[in-house]
Design goal:
The chain contains two helices and five strands; from the N terminus they run αββββαβ. By secondary structure, it is of the alpha+beta class. The protein has one domain: XisI-like (TATA-Binding Protein, 2-Layer Sandwich). The longest helix is centred in the N-terminal third of the chain and has 17 residues. The mean pLDDT is about 95.
C-alpha cells in the first residue's frame, strides 16, 4: 500500500472511531463524510436538542494535499494529529492548517 492510500485508510479509521463515541440515546448524530476523490474527510454532528435547538457543526476536517495530511479543523479534546503520529505518520507529513502559516514553524509539525 502506498503512503497516500495508507493515510486515507488511517483518517477514515480515526473518523469512524470518533463517530462512535457518543451516547446511543443521543438525538445528535455523528456523520462521517469521505470525499476520497478529492481527499477531503470530515466528522460532523447533526440533530436536534430539546426539539427546538438545531445542532450542526464540523468536529473534524482533514485533507490530503501534496502528500501531506492537512488538519483544517480539530474541535476535539484528543488531537487527531497526535493519534496519527501514534499510528506511525511522521510529524513532517502533518500540517496543522488551523494555525496561520507564519505560526506553523513554531510547531513540531510541517509548515505546508
Amino acid at each position: 500500500m502506498d503512503k497516500i492510500d495508507h493515510y486515507r485508510q488511517l483518517i477514515r479509521e480515526l473518523l469512524i472511531e470518533r463517530s462512535k463515541l457518543r451516547s446511543p440515546n443521543s438525538p445528535i448524530e455523528s456523520q462521517t463524510v469521505f470525499d476520497t476523490e478529492n481527499d477531503h474527510y470530515q466528522l460532523v454532528k447533526v440533530g436536534w436538542r430539546d426539539s427546538s435547538t438545531r445542532i450542526y457543526g464540523c468536529v473534524l476536517h482533514v485533507d490530503i494535499k501534496d502528500g501531506k495530511i492537512w488538519i483544517q479543523y480539530d474541535g476535539t479534546e484528543n488531537a487527531i494529529a497526535d493519534q496519527l503520529v501514534e499510528r506511525g505518520v511522521p510529524k513532517s507529513d502533518i500540517v496543522l492548517a488551523y494555525h496561520a502559516p507564519h505560526v506553523r514553524q513554531y510547531t513540531e509539525f510541517a509548515v505546508g
